[in-house]
Structure formats: structure tokens, C-alpha cells
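User: I'm putting together notes for a lab meeting next week and I want to include a structural view of one of the chains we've been expressing. I don't have a solved structure, so I'd like a prediction I can at least talk through. The sequence is below, exactly as it appears in our construct file.
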Amino acid sequence: FTGAVSYADSETPGLGTALDAMADWRYGWAFLAATGLGLMAFGVYALAQARYRRIEVSAG
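Assistant: Thanks for the context. Below is the predicted structure for the 60-residue chain, given as C-alpha cells.
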């Protein structure tokens, strides 16, 4: 939200800037690792849902 208020379009920091800022925190590496593991776990869950989920379709 602050990027929308504080910066011009051409100078708005991106995702890389946010990740670099998090990496500079005291336990930033742990937050980044937990985020990465969570995203990978969600990917495995989504693939399992896509493969094994059964959708019941009722007629009418």
C-alpha cells in the first residue's frame, strides 16, 4: 500500500527488493525458508488435488 502512495510508477520497489529486505532481518533466512517450504507444500497439495479429487456431478 505504501508503494502506491509513496512512489512513482517507475521507482516502485519490486518483489526482489522485498525479499532482499527480509533476508536482512535477524532471522530473515528462516522466514524465507519457511515461505519457500510452504509454497512447495502447497504445490504438492494442489497437484494431489488435481490428480485424485473426484467431483460429483448431479443430473438436473
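A couple of points you could mention at the meeting. The mean pLDDT is 86. The helical segments are 2-6, 15-23, 28-52.

User: Perfect, that's what I needed.
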